[in-house]
Amino acid sequence: MNITCPNKSCAFPQNPSRDGFFRRKEDSKSIQRYRCKACGERFSSATFSDAYWQKRRRINGTLMKLLSSNVSQRRAAVFLGVSRSTVERRVPFLGRRCRRLNELHLKKIAGKVHNIQIDDLITKENSKLKPLTISVAVDEKRRTILGLEVSQIPAFGHLAHLARRKYGLRKDEHNHGLTRLFRKIAPLAAPEVLVKSDEHRRYPYFILKYLHRAKHETFLSERACVAGQGELKKLRFDPLFMVNHTCATLRANVNRLIRKTWCTTKDPLRLQDHLDIFMYYYNAVLLPQENHQC
Ligand SMILES: [Zn+2]
After folding, report:
1. Topology (CATH) of 102-293
2. pTM of the complete model
């Protein structure tokens, strides 16, 4: 790594000199110190870490695995021997880190994805009266998750009336979520990509706008095979198997997406962090392992 002086008003930030070590108590690592020859600023290689000032950086890797393996934040805190607030604060940090890693990871398949499946998964914020939708895009051949975007939607069906009475009008931000999703997948898709989805009324507009030469195939939604697992279909051959299976994997591994659970989302932004963490773990750790075993 090319170390430069972090002092923004420094005239010659290049070539700081080494200035001994210190032992970081938290993870027993010895960290190189530096001293800038120009301005005298003293810093260390830890200054540039994204975990700078964290007191429990030891938990970052394990916490990522636990959050992607159906463990609640409270239980993760018990396992790791840290307080609940530490775990709570670490979720947005890991979310940011994993979003960066996801971007790097997906760059490898930029322009190479020929088959994409898209679907939306409904979950809730505290109450079913405040639903959220997660727009999911999956590479049909590689099984890689290409994007997960959370957006709030108003309650629908027989709850709509009750929800309006209790919480007032709720904004529909699904279009914003789909815009974010399609902006992310547009550079990944090959020019003549084939997109498969159900007959959701909003998809054709976005496919036309962001994937100009794409072919779009739609399929009727089918009945579920197990009560409560709407994602696994009662069909011999499910044309949308890959995206349905990914949604079922999400529900099984991100604990707040399980139906009828104690754990719910209190803040849609934290759900987005959690999903980005899972996406990184799934794409970069679980999938390569499974592919290796076949
Ligand atoms: Zn300097």
Report:
1. Nucleotidyltransferase; domain 5 (3.30.420)
2. 0.90
